[in-house]
């Protein structure tokens, strides 16, 4: 019998809230974080809506509990804020002696400072302290130092599925007996770098995004960080800590189709979901809700929708994309939406897909349009797909007592 | 002050932890059944093993690329690809060709910096903050491009991931591969470490004191005695397998990373427990490949203990051949695998006059500013 993997802590900061309680409140009140750019310095300010964390850099320092210091990127600070919440929620510090890892994900690392100071990097010594934040490991090591985690440390970057893969690796290492508990998730900050990059690909919607809608027109980018604490069965038994839920399935597959586009039949998405279902030992009929990747691009929503129909047949469970709330937080999306899906298990609700009006002609199902309360939600699936066809699917389940 | 209750619970946890490690940790070795390496030495498209050593006097060591990428990548596609991606795909295919494996069960890549060239193209114009005319550099700047481009080339839908943690990047990829083998989810895993250097990135990181300020002779690394190292680059892929074949070079027994050791005693302790987990002792190690990089603030302090921990064990080094970069341990693994298969230790890598034959077990030890220490244990 393989080891069971329990979730014992949650931490999140996105455009819809600086912590779990605020996030839940926004979800219940159908409140979006998407709007006009307030904090990122860019010419695209009036043109492209995004979901920013509603804090200045200074406020991020304050919430992170760190004095304003040179050398910190917004990316590292958001990561520290969310990872610390998860760490405290799981009371990691109360149970020393267990082997604890940090697996973090990011796609552009500390680019938020590097793009500002790049000219200085090339011409003078005034911003040297930020040079180290160029790479992806910088935020991970800063988070590890704040939390005092040293037993295992790594950083994953598989584009928009990065933090789902971080969660998956954490689970695998616990299952193999390499670690007792893992803080896993990701952090991503809005930058001119990827705002302009996505804009060049012509996949940003200038209006609020409409996933799974016939008239969908692209992505709204978002920023944020989210981490969950995973723990082994033995470790939870030992500490007697309350369990939030169980991670029962995960699957990673590659589209092997195109660097930025998804295949028309969604082979990568299909295989990732199928692997996750098989590992969980569940049947497709057991899944009560799918939190879709649902970016709102023409391409993703057909590809993912087709893959869902192929796997679930005519019995597609309620599906929604929650990106109209948080925006697409890219590398942090996997962990962000894992937590939003876990809230469905805890609150027995299903979040609606905002901004939907017209069904896609290619699909037989339509996304959930109203907040569904009092639902029996025992198993949820969370999908995260990335550039390069890096597709990952996770399944969380209400925990049965052991 | 610990209360009695927490004392008891801590004791119980320690006991549990001890047994958990003893009883449940799964460690499975991986056979290296193929290698493709593009490096500043003549390592690509050859069966030769360092019979000619490339000598440089330069700011950084640049890879010797194959004369053409046509055998590996469709020319129409390769025209749009940046150098790192071409080197990655080519070395991956060299590795697969050598191993005879056509479709790996997983593709896992480690890269400290990804495509620096593509990222710089964007950063060079970002101050304009205007929509880029060409999205290609952005598409290729994502760190997972190499892993996913290899998958696209092979039409491989299997597990695919990318690790991006400084000098843990390649080691994390190896750890994931060993984990896949232990889980039984994959038998043949294509695993690589790849990084490039550019003149801009060299100039920027030189501001942090990472490099010498003048061109240096790579083969005189042991004589430098000054701050800063010599930058390099490389692309190395390995086919790691659950099964031995007639192509097998060596076995990877274990890979360990240590982040910010509490003190210098912690490292020998961790080395000892790593060896005993593989049922080896100190004297079983026949060669140690050290990641010394010619920076006198770095080398004596963090490698000195090796001599006292492994008395009489021959020491060797490799960064004079490939330069310092985040995934340089991939070059070291290529060296170790070849030494074990051919049973020859090239003179250019020897630090001392000690010899031991046959060479059955090699320990690769790399560290980065006393923050990221890593060990790869490779056996015959």
Q: What is this structure's SSE topology?
A:
The complex is a heterodimer of chains A (402) and B (380).
Chain A: E1 5-14, H1 20-28, E2 34-35, E3 50-51, H2 57-64, H3 74-89, E4 100-105, H4 111-123, H5 137-147, E5 152-156, H6 162-175, E6 181-188, H7 192-200, E7 224-232, H8 233-239, E8 245-254, H9 267-280, E9 289-291, H10 298-312, E10 319-320, H11 323-326, H12 333-347, E11 379-385, E12 390-397
Parallel strand pairs in A: 4-5, 4-6, 9-10, 9-11
Antiparallel strand pairs in A: 1-7, 1-8, 2-3, 6-7, 8-12, 11-12
Chain B: H1 4-24, E1 30-38, E2 57-58, H2 75-78, H3 83-99, E3 106-110, H4 116-126, H5 136-141, H6 145-154, E4 159-163, H7 169-183, E5 188-195, H8 199-206, E6 216-217, E7 234-241, E8 250-259, H9 266-277, E9 287-290, H10 299-309, E10 315-317, H11 319-322, H12 329-342, E11 361-368, E12 372-379
Parallel strand pairs in B: 3-4, 3-5, 9-10, 9-11
Antiparallel strand pairs in B: 1-7, 1-8, 2-6, 5-7, 8-12, 11-12
Helix pairs in contact in B: 3-6
């Amino acid at each position: 019998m393989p080891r069971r993997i329990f979730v014992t802590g949650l931490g999140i900061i996105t455009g819809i809230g600086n912590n779990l309680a605020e996030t839940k409140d926004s979800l219940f009140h159908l409140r979006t974080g998407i709007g006009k750019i307030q904090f990122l310095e860019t010419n695209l300010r009036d043109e492209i809506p995004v979901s920013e964390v509603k804090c200045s850099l200074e406020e991020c320092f304050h919430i992170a509990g760190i004095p304003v210091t040179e050398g910190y990127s917004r990316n590292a600070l958001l990561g520290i804020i969310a990872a610390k919440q998860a760490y405290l929620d799981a009371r990691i510090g109360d149970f020393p002696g267990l082997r604890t890892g940090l697996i973090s994900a990011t796609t552009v690392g500390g680019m938020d400072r590097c793009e500002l100071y790049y000219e200085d990097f090339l011409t003078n010594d005034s911003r040297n302290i930020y040079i180290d934040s160029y790479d992806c490991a910088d935020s991970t090591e800063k988070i590890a130092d704040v939390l005092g985690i040293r037993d295992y440390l790594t950083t994953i970057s598989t584009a928009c599925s990065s933090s789902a893969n971080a969660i998956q690796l954490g689970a695998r290492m616990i299952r193999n007996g390499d670690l007792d508990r893992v803080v896993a998730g990701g952090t991503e900050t809005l930058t001119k770098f990827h705002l302009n990059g996505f804009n060049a690909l012509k996949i940003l919607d200038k209006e609020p995004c409409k996933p799974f809608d016939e008239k969908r027109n692209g992505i709204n980018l978002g920023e944020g960080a989210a981490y969950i604490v995973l723990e082994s069965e033995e470790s939870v038994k030992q500490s007697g800590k309350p369990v939030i839920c169980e991670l029962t399935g995960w699957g990673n597959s590659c589209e092997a189709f195109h660097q930025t586009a998804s295949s028309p039949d969604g082979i990568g998405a299909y295989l990732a979901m199928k692997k996750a279902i098989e590992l969980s030992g569940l049947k497709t009929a057991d899944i009560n809700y799918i939190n879709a990747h649902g970016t709102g691009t023409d391409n993703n929503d057909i590809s993912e929708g087709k893959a869902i129909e192929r796997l679930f047949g005519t019995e597609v469970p309620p599906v929604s994309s929650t990106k109209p709330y948080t925006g697409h937080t890219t590398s942090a999306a996997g962990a962000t939406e894992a937590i939003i899906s876990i809230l469905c298990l805890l609150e027995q609700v299903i979040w609606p897909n905002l901004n939907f009006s017209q069904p896609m002609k290619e699909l037989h199902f339509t996304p959930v349009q109203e907040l569904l309360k009092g639902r029996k939600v025992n198993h949820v699936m969370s999908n995260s797909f990335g550039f390069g066809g890096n597709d990952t699917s996770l399944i969380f389940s209400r925990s049965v007592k052991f | 002050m610990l209360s009695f209750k927490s004392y008891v619970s801590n004791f119980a946890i320690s006991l549990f932890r001890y047994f958990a490690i003893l009883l449940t940790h799964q460690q499975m070795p991986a056979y290296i059944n193929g290698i493709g390496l593009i490096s500043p030495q003549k390592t690509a498209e050859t069966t030769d093993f360092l019979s000619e050593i490339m000598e440089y006097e330069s700011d950084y060591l640049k890879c010797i690329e194959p004369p053409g990428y046509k055998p590996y990548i469709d020319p129409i596609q390769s025209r749009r690809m940046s150098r790192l991606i071409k080197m990655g795909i080519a070395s991956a295919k060299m590795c697969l060709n050598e191993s005879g494996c056509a479709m790996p069960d997983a593709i896992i890549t480690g890269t400290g910096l990804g495509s620096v060239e593509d990222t710089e193209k964007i950063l060079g114009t970002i101050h304009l903050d205007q929509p880029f005319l060409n999205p290609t550099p952005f598409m290729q700047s994502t760190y997972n491009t190499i892993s996913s481009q290899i998958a696209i080339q092979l039409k491989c839908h299997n597990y695919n991931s990318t690790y991006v943690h400084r000098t843990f990047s390649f080691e994390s990829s190896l750890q994931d591969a060993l984990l896949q083998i232990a889980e039984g989810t994959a038998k043949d895993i294509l695993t690589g470490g790849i990084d490039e250097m550019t003149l801009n990135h060299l100039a920027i990181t030189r501001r942090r004191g990472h490099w010498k300020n003048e061109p240096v002779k790579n083969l005189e690394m042991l004589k430098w005695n000054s701050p800063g190292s010599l930058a390099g680059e490389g692309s190395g892929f390995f086919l790691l397998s659950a099964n031995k074949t007639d192509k097998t070079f060596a076995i990877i027994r274990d890979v360990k990373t240590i982040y910010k050791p509490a003190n210098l005693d912690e490292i020998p302790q961790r080395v000892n427990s790593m060896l005993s987990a593989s049922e080896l002792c100190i004297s079983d190690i026949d060669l140690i490949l050290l990641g010394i990089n010619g920076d006198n603030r770095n080398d004596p302090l963090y490698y000195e203990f090796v001599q006292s921990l492994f008395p009489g064990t021959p020491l060797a080094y490799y960064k004079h051949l490939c330069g310092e970069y985040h995934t340089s341990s991939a070059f070291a693994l290529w060296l170790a695998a070849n030494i074990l298969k051919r049973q020859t230790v090239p003179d250019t890598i020897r630090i001392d006059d000690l010899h031991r034959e046959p060479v059955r077990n090699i320990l690769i030890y790399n560290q980065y500013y006393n923050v990221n220490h890593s060990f790869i244990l490779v056996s015959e």
